[in-house]
Design brief:
about 375 residues, alpha+beta, Aminopeptidase, 2 domains, 11-stranded mixed sheet, 4-stranded antiparallel sheet, 11 helices, 15 strands, globular
Length: about 375
Amino acid sequence: MTAVQIIERIQQIDPAHWAALFGPQPLSSQPFLAAMEESQSINPTHGWQPQHLVLQSESKQPLAALPLYLKQHSYGEYVFDWSWANASHRAGIPYYPKLISAIPFTPTTGTRLGLATDSPAKSTQRLLQQLSEQAQQHNASSWHLLFADQKCRQRILDAWPEPCELLERHDCQYHWLNADYRDFEHFLQRFSSRKRKMIRRERRRVQEQGVKLSRFCGETLTLEQLQSFFGFYQQTYHQRGQTPYLNWDFFRRIHQSLRNNMLLVLAEHQQQPVGAALFLFDQQSLYGRWWGGHAQYDCLHFEACYYQGIEFAIKNKLERFDPGTQGEHKLLRGFEPTRTCSLHWIRHPGLHRAVQQSLIQERQQVAAYMQQARQQLPFKRSE
């Protein structure tokens, strides 16, 4: 007899059992999500209440899982629904609380539905039934499945009682794709002459300022180096008058549990740290996540966050480099327009219809933008 459990602390689940459901991507791993919760970077007081759904066998073995949070706001999601919330409030319809299945503060595509290889045929339906009960219990206005990959979205659509109730939303990010490059120069050979000179000029400019960059991962990544990064990370937020989402305890915890999946690019001038970028990676992809540095060094952000990442991806034969959300400047550096998708269920029929109509136009706009963006790529026109 199987049963769906509501897990309010992901620490209750064995990391190996969670990995058996979700695979090796570090950003959806139990240690990453646990670091968020245990460091108090997310908690009910901050508007994030974990409600993870786990289908268990009689022996308490996890068979399927859906990360789930009860939210009192829309911060930290990167699929912006503030206009939906405002329209809802103007109509006198409460928009919060809502439910989301996502990785907090992480706009990276991946699976949001974990299934064991021997999970029962109706495992997804069982989770979605419990999701419906959670929505009723908390009077949630909506459920949002964010940055889900195609296989995950299809499984959800196949199991949803009325698939037309789910609204699909598109957006655009910029990803680097590995075409079996031998090295960075081989990658640059795809560029037009003028764009290739621009990249070389930017990299040379960093060297001319006396800035040295080094890469550290696994056992070579020390807590002291990570503390240097965290100082820059904090400084970047404070310069904008903001408070960082993630605290030192979060980074300390992932250093302890995910060090073999972490890459730190450290920039130094006269043997003093002046900037750092922190990435995570698995056997297929590199994920650019956090950055901070002194602004007076020209082109340092491009070098630390993009070019060093590309070199690492080529050296380690990774297929993809996802450098994070936003930034059309990535196009000129060889990051290609990539569509992201999310699914949305909205309880109120009137709000559902209004959002449905707006998303038809938005999807068309995203498709048109991506087509235009491809024309800005720096590659030779013969491609």
